[in-house]
Structures are given as structure tokens and as C-alpha cells.
Amino acid sequence: MKRQTTLLQAVIVLGGFLALAFLCNQSGIEIHLALFAAWFLAMAVGKRNGFSYQEMEHAVTKGIYDGMSAILILLAVGALVGTWISGGIVPSLIYYGLKVIHPSIFLLATLILCSITSIATGTSWGTVGTSGIAMMGIGSALGIPAPITAGAVLSGAYFGDKLSPLSDSCVLSAAMADIDVIDHVRGILPVSLSAFGITGIAFTVLGFRLGGGSADMTQVNSVMAALQENFHISLFAFVPMLVVIILLILKMPSLPVISFGAGLGIVWGIIFQGLTPVKAISTAWVQLEMNTGIEFIDSLLSRGGMNSMLWSVAIIILGLGFGGLLDRIGIIKAIAGKVYQHINNGGTLTVFTIIVGFLGCLLGSAMYVSLVLTPKIMAEKYDEMGYSRRVLSRNAEIGGTLTAGMIPWSDNGIYMATILGVATFEYLPYMWLSFSCIALAIIFGFTGLFMWKNKNAV
């Protein structure tokens, strides 16, 4: 006879997992192992409550199966990023973005350029490691304080990371909420665009205050020259990006569209970059290596390919399996029951979802932990109150993705601080897009704006 999982048992499993995740992060061990070990911690509780090993193993495999579409899309995204870089598509976007740079509009241009790069590639890490690095150097040459530039870079990078259908966090949020990735984008679009407008105005005002004088544009010219030297820069590079975006807007399935985009990248690499067919195709798996002696160019050329997504694929597999196991043995229900007592309207529902997402990053030290756990914990309440799952996926990503870079010991916090050369607490006050999204999501929750209801909800 099966016994109901108690709140204490749920806290032991989740607390044990979060402790393992924290220890892994602090010791440099991959968080994958914390998730894998947590499987057996949960199984021990499940066994005590009367579940057979076969039942729990089936729950793990079913959880993974339910999220398999996200894994396939991630691999396709890796191929697309790899071929778009080697095909000169991403470098061309950066090049033409740099052409609009002027001291007074530098911060706004940084926000826009990083947003475009992030939407085109679907990765905040890739954006920060490519165009973000360039903008930090340019900002330094223009006399803009590094923390402010970093804030503009991260605002643009996270805008695309949570909005682009190519983003792993976007795909994972949709998968864990059990909705299509395009439906997730539609759900988060009102918050994202409103927050982007607020952030753009704020950085424009600050930019005119800081960059009104003349500045040395030498570094801008050197970066542009390096891009021209290593890539054939062309306006035709915008064609694949527009094709992919249009097809996705037309509700075409994500996997074939993204894969088709990767194919266009291969064609662009052969036609415009002079790559042999074998080299162009190989970039869909692993990016070409080049040692130009220019750090920005070397960093740019080394990114992308399916191989670069294997880290994310592994953690998603482990996370999906863990989520399926938590659901089967009743841990999700035990936690949710306690949280649900304090939720009585759309506003409190939004606030608690964002808090749960933030705690997942804070205690789990990784964005993926939050994106896996938050929808699992909160989904039943959204269904009970009649809210669409797209509202759940939106709030889960705002609480998980947008707060990950604020935590010094999280995967995002460590990466961003290291790459940008600015401490987390120094750039934190300028993460204006994140703060705007959180505030707007809560306002929408209490006012009912863009809080879609299910068709059969009362």
C-alpha cells in the first residue's frame, strides 16, 4: 500500500538536491551529478512510501520522453548557431550593428545589438561571449563605466534568451509547462516588449548624459576591420535570419524550421565564406577553430555546433527525469499544497511563481534547476485557477532566467562576471530589463492584463 509523501520528506529530497547542487557548484563539479544523485534520494523516499523501482524508473523515462522535443530542438539550435557563425551571418549582424555606434547612443546601440544577436542565436552566453565582449571594449574606449555597459549587454542578451524560439531556456520553459515553444513566445511577448521599451528609454537618457562628448573610435574600427578580414560581410546575411523568423511566425514546426535555417547557414558558408562543402557541413556539429591572435575573433569562431549543446542536453535529460520522478512519488503535490494556501488571485500566483523560480536559482546555483522545478511545482494551481499554461511558462522563465545572472554563485552569474570582467553586484543595479520584466509581470498579474484564461475556465 502506497503512503502519501509528507512535506518533511519533500523538503528532505529537494533540500538534499539543492545542497548537492550548491556543493557541486562551489567545488567545480558539474551540476549534472547533483541531479543524477538526487534521482536516488527521491527513489529512496519513494521506496519507503511503497513505490516499486519499476514504477519509479518508468516515471523517469516518461519524464524524459515528454521533453524529448526540447532536446531535439536544442541539437538543431546548436547546428544553426554553428553554421550561422561560420557562414558569416552572425558576424555580419555584429558588423552592421557596430556601424551605428556613436558615443551618445552607445548604450542604446549595445542593448539593440545584443538583443539582435541573442534573438538570432538564442543564447545569452553566446551573445555575451561575442558581441558582448566587443561592446565592453568599445565602451571602455568611449569612457563608459564598465558596470553600466555590462548592464546594457545583459539586458539585450537576456531579452533574446527568454524570447527567441532558438533559446534553450525558452524551449525548456515551454517543454516543462507542456506547451509549444511559439505559444510560450506569444505569452512572454507583451512583458518583454514593454520592458524593452522602458529599458531602451532609460539607457538612451543615461547614454546622452555619459557620451555627449567626442570619443576615440579606434577600437570600433579595429573590431570592424577584424570582422572584415576574417569574414565576407554582406547584407545577404540577414536573409537566413528573416526566413527563419518568418517561418516561425507562420507557425511552422520549430524543429524543421531551425534545421532548415542551419542548412541555409551551410549554403552561406560555401557561397559567401569560401568554405568547402565538408567544412561547412561539419560546422553543424562543431565549430571551426582559428587562431588569429585577436581574442574577440577567436571567441566568435569557436562557438556553436551540436557538440556545444551536449552539456545542456545532458542536464535537460537529467532534469526531466528528476521532474517526472518528483511528480510520480508525490513530492510536487506535497510542496504545492503548502504554497497554494497563500495564492488567491493572479497577482499572488505570479509573485509566488517568480519567487519559486528565484529560489531555484539561488539554492540550485543554476538556471536549469529553476526552469525544471518551478513549472512542476506551480502547474496544478494554474490549471485549478483556469490560467493558460503560457502564463505559467512566462512567469517561470521570468523568475528563473532573468534572475540567474544576479546570483554570484550561479552558473550564469559566474559566467557573466568572468566574461565581462565586472563583478555580479557591480552590474546588478543596471540589469534594467530584468527588473522591468519582473515588475511588469507582477502588475499584469494583479490587473489581469495578458493573464489568459483557458477556454473552459469559469
TrEMBL record:
Keywords: Antiport, Cell membrane, Membrane, Transmembrane, Transmembrane helix, Transport. It is found in: Cell membrane. InterPro entries: Na/H_antiport_NhaC (IPR004770), Na/H_Antiport_NhaC-like_C (IPR018461), NhaC_Na-H+_Antiporter (IPR052180). It comes from the Bacteria. The chain crosses the membrane at residues 6-24, 31-50, 70-98, 105-127, 133-159, 188-211, 231-250, 257-275, 309-326, 347-369, 430-452. Residues 156-449 form the Na+/H+ antiporter NhaC-like C-terminal domain. Its main location: membrane. It is a multi-pass membrane protein. It holds the Pfam family Na_H_antiporter. Belongs to the NhaC Na(+)/H(+) (TC 2.A.35) antiporter family. NCBIfam families: antiport_nhaC. This is Na+/H+ antiporter NhaC. It comes from Lachnospira intestinalis.
